[in-house]
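debug: dumping io for the single-chain case to check the tokenizer round-trip. Nothing else runs in this session.
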Amino acid sequence: MTDITAFWIALYIAMLAAFTGYVVISRVPVILHTPLMSGSNFIHGIVLVGAMVALGLATTTTQQVIGFVAVVLGAANVTGGYVVTERILQMFDRSGKKPGKGA
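debug: decoded output
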């Protein structure tokens, strides 16, 4: 298989995954968004571990730069996912406490 063929196959798979993800997420009821976010955070954690492994196996400078960017973006994605999940859970908190206020 040539490099250009592999590129088009990878691009097709990425576009198909993006479309499928959009369709699946858009049909999720509002009440299920919090469990779905928790599941996606789990998957993002696995992606971060994969990025760290790829960075560890990188041999050229270009591979190391791409691996480093992947680790940084993956870490930001995981952190952001947990922040969003926490904010969603605070919306359903019935204790009456405001976040960030003293006890």
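debug: round-trip ok. The chain has one domain: 3-91.
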